[in-house]
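Ticket #4471: structure output looks truncated?

Reporter: J.K.
Steps to reproduce: submitted the chain below (258 residues) through the standard prediction queue, then opened the result file.
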Amino acid sequence: MFTDSHCHLAGHEFAADLKEVVARAHAAEVKQALVILAAGDHEEAEQAERLASLWPDVRFAAGVHPHQANDFAGKVADIPRLLAHAFDGNPRLRAVGEIGLDYHYDFSPRDVQVEVFKVQVAFARERGLPIVVHTREATADTFEILRAAGAVRGVFHCFTGDVAMARNALAIGFHLSFAGIVTFPKAPDLRAIASWVPDDRFLVETDSPYLAPAPFRGERNEPARVVRVAEVIGEARGATADEIGEQTTKTFRALFAP
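Returned output as attached by the reporter:
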């Protein structure tokens, strides 16, 4: 049994063959998935409804990604109402995300990203919800916001940080989720981190349609390929893919209460 803890199946990339993608996930024994939604995106919301009918065990997260933070410049106060509307209307929503900071692309001004991130962390804390964190080249500010918030839990999705970042994330109670990057030949340091993270503090994901694992790089990714991520982490930890799948599914359920 496997769980894809982060994917984007509500995106347009899967509109034409969603049923087949779900069938392949089931054939690979991927029983559950957390699908990320852009808060307020009506097209994704419609596809999420279709997905839920095809895959009843799927669960969702919703939030404002840092790339879209500038859409709320000067109106950050609107975000809690937007999130409340989403969560009150969809009982399958389990987390706020993905949210965070991205100083690599800087598609939104950094000060706006910070404001948008803070208000969503506060919403999650008030609701007792976990968060799904996206952070890129913004480690110091990300940790500063999370530490200041206090009493918030969640996961650093698609973790690619160093040992210090991993230990800091674990120290504040967060989980690490490993995606297809952990399978890349040039990622031995990431595999080393995956080898020692406590059993109950890591997850596996695809980030579909992105980051297909080796040997599928360059292809559209999908949840069935989370098994490959589990295989590689299993090799690093001296475990089978099935053992990694069972453990991460247990961890997923504990964190997201699906």
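Triage note (M.O.): checked the attachment and the full token line is present. The chain has one domain: 2-256.
Status: closed, working as intended.
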